[in-house]
Design goal:
Ferritin; 160 residues
């Protein structure tokens, strides 16, 4: 039997991804202390925090039917698995991305990295859509994707 997620689990992953995205921008701010980019990176981290809060609110508003398990999980390992999945998907949710910043990157290089991470996140969520049954809130993943698209637009406006 393949792995299937319900929308509550998808929101759990989205929240973790946003937390890691905020960590990326906070790390960039920390490495850029003393120049004009600090405020920009702090604002981008706050944007990720706002999206995290949005996803938490959406998860909190789910009806019980959508929270039902989609697969047998006798050891309650789903949360551990979902957090690991969110950390390793290679997009903005990857904890390793923040750790890879050295402080030598230019603003343009950091924004280019961030744009690629956002694009990977969108692809990740598109893939998750296939794992969520229609009745379990599959349509809500489009809301998450829409939020990620907003990130891309904001980042591209910085590059202009």
């Amino acid at each position: 039997m393949g792995v299937r997620f319900n929308i509550e689990e998808v929101f759990t992953m989205a929240i973790k991804i946003e937390e890691n995205g905020a960590a990326f921008y906070r790390r960039a701010a920390e490495l850029n202390k003393g120049n004009d980019n600090v405020k920009l990176f702090e604002n981008l981290a706050r944007m990720e925090d706002i999206h995290k809060k949005t996803f938490e609110e959406m998860r909190g508003g789910l009806v019980e039917e959508h929270k039902q398990e989609q697969a047998f999980d006798p050891f309650n390992e789903a949360v551990l698995y979902l957090n690991a999945t969110a950390d390793m998907h290679g997009g903005e949710g990857s904890k390793n991305i923040a750790d890879s910043l050295t402080g030598k990157e230019t603003l343009q290089e950091i924004i280019t990295i961030a744009l690629e991470l956002e694009k990977k996140s969108i692809l990740y969520y598109l893939g998750l859509k296939d794992l969520v049954p229609e009745k379990a809130g599959k349509d809500k993943i489009d809301i998450i994707i829409g939020e990620e698209k907003k990130h891309i637009v904001q980042l591209q406006s910085i590059m202009s």
